[in-house]
Give the backbone structure.
Amino acid sequence: FSGGSPRRKRARGGIITTSGGSNITHLSVIALALMLLAYSPAFKSFLNNNGSHPSLSCILLSHQIDLPGGAIAGSNRFEPSAEQIQSGKFCVPWTVNLDEWHQHEVEWLPVFAYDQGQCFHRVDDERTRYWRQVHEVQWGDATNCSLVHTHKMISSGWGADFDWLAWAMQSTYDANRPFQVGFRTQDGRNHFWHYAAIKGTGRNATCPSRDMLCYFYPLSRCQAGAVTDLEEDGIPDHDSQPQNLWLKDYLTRPQQWLRKAIYDYLRDEAPRVPTP
């Protein structure tokens, strides 16, 4: 890897493989499903607090619930009702696109998916409070885009790629500077992330940018600039836990189409695991 601390270099590997086909086949769906299990504590809380809730019972038992729309008339924007905000939970049909709303509402975690829709639960804990602080540096009114640090997007193993970015993002956040990702152009070639386009060829791209933003929420209101190393940009190297793990979760908050694709795959294609 170019740039960063030498200890950041990783052996090649990982659990994601690339292949041809539809946009979802650039990923290992099972690996992403495991990633989404990071939300399981919120789901447990959702269940514990709503065991007798009639709407939740309908979701769990019949998967046939008439859900409120939630969309603002004449637009694709979504806003939860005052009642939903007060309760800290809501469910919404897949036909309502929540991306524009959800990318900025870091406290609302997707905790359950089913044929008709998905459910969210508001979580106030150390992780989401840290996310909110990071989000303000990335998207806030005081965000200074002239200070944006654009870090190289690498193509190695899935874990190594996001370890690399989380470390750099933590260092950039600690310096109170917005963070973006990009590619270095070498030998006149346009580079890409090999989980968003076929490795070696760049064909069959998931989206035109051929990077992580094909799958996950935009990182900042600041545009990416020239790719630089932290040291070149005068940013001290920071790496601490659990913030590094929290930032991996923040970086990989999936867009709605991906959550739906994972749900559909697990429902229709994933091997069934026998239970007692």
Q: What stands out?
A: Confidence is low (pLDDT under 50) at residues 1-31, 33-75. The chain is about 30% helix and 10% strand. The first strand starts at residue 89 and ends at 93.
